[in-house]
Amino acid sequence: MKRSRNLLGSISLLIVCVVLGVLVSLQLKSVNSAQNLQLNANKRLEEIQNELIQQTRINRDLADRYAELKNYVETVENQTFEADDAFQRIMEEKRNAEIFAGLTEVSGSGVVITILAGTDFFVRDSDLRSVVNELRAAGAQAISVNEERMVATSEIREAGPYIVINGKQFPSNAQFEIKGIARAEDLERAMLMVSGIGEQLELYNIEFEIVKSEKVTIPRLREDSPAYRYDMIK
Q: What's the pLDDT tens digit per position in 138-196?
């Protein structure tokens, strides 16, 4: 009987120990889990903090870079404006040089002068040169004779019954049309002045007419003309 009681007590104690062990094990597991969660939470918070610090640095670097790029763009824009301004001046000078050299067609206000010899008369080369020179003296920026552009190397000369202009022949008894671009009033005044070229032409029985126009178009110098080849020699 006593032996049975001891056996029962031992079994009870074993059961109690097992239960206590299980409880302790569960408690420790619970504590470890809580600690792990806290560690994970702390680790995640630290990672977030590090990422936030990193992003802050990136944003600051981007802001600095943006400021640098903004200053650079403003500098480039200013330089571009200055360059464009200088470029425009260069292009304007180039255009003026081309006009002076007769290398481009031009249009503007001016006059159209018609010269025609009377019956049994003819136009002389000196008559045409006199009109061209008068227009130049009056400030004409561009001049043409029968659509032949007049430049410094242009020729107007007699060749028998013809007048040669920039290598092209025109009958001396034909009509000649001279155009000039400038202030039309200035050109007209120069041609009609007392004892001027207009009166001289009339003395030689040459019909003379001048018409002012808001748009006079003068062609560029022909590339196959001697004046063009001379002009290309540098």
A: 999 999 999 999 998 899 999 999 999 999 999 998 899 999 999 999 999 999 988 88
Domain range for residue 176? 107-232
Q: How far apart are CA 179 and CA 69, in angstroms?
A: 56
Distance CA 193, CA 208 (A): 14
Please tell me whether residues 116 and 227 are part of one structural domain.
Answer: yes
Burial of 74 (0-12, 13-18, 19+ CB in 10 A): exposed
Residues 172 and 222 in one domain: yes
Check which CATH number belongs to the domain holding 132 and give it: 3.30.70.1880
Global pTM reads: 0.61
Report the relative pairing of strands 168-171 and 106-117 from DSSP bridges.
unpaired
134 and 94 both lie in a single domain: no
Residues 86-117 pLDDT 10s: 667 777 777 777 777 788 899 999 999 999 98
CB 113 within 8 Å of CB 210: yes
